[in-house]
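Known limitations

Structure tokens in this collection are predictions and should be treated as such. Users comparing against experimental data should check residue numbering before alignment. To illustrate the layout, the record for Polysaccharide deacetylase is reproduced below. The input appears on top and the generated tokens appear beneath it.
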Amino acid sequence: MVILSFTSFFFEVKWWSFLLLFLFWLTMTVWGSSDIRLGYFVKTHCNNPNEKERKIALSFDDGPHPITEKVLDVLQKYDVKATFFCIGKQIEKHPEIFKRILAEGHLVGNHSYSHTNKFGIFSTQKVIEEIQRTNDIIHTVSGKKVVYFRPPFGVTNPNIARAVTHTGHHVIGWNNRSLDTVIEDENKILKRVKNRVAPGGIVLLHDTSQKTVNVLEQLLLFLQSENYDVVPIDKLINLPAYET
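Generated tokens:
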């Protein structure tokens, strides 16, 4: 835009050139804010592109929740470890379920305190408060200081970027989104995830509904048949999940 404005002093530049440039900038900003895989505003870890072996990670958002217990039962049945991005206020409601997640060898990450749909318009300071509040809750319940953060809805923007720089968190995304909170048909959810399975990938699921529990068991059977090794995210991207 600046270059175009400068050029207009020497050459005739059509007004619609500015409009097109503005629309391009707006499109990229909206897309960059809503698609965490782009890393548009902040560095994100959405997979391990260098992984050649059949390794993949499963992640669950929005717990702990009563359904989390059923998810844990399935993971235990298949001896699989996953990563749970937990909401602060949900940990306060279900501390025992949160403790079970850790006791069974799974990783936990920070998924904000409120998970409000207004998170994307929070100030930098408000985002910092949300992250630190949840970190404090996790530390109180478990003694762990988490350094993984997954923003609600996968939204990123300059305020969130400044906040995680301040708190020192790694932003963890995904490259295989199940849409299990949107799609009702379990077969369609399963098909969507299976079609996107690839070495080094991170699958996004939610431990908040029975349909996801049902899909999870079928997905694990599929991954088993394809000789995939399901690992926690720290083993996939080689970044520690907790402060040492």
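For this record: The chain is about 45% helix and 15% strand. Residues 6-10, 21-26 have pLDDT under 50 and may be disordered. Please report discrepancies through the issue tracker.
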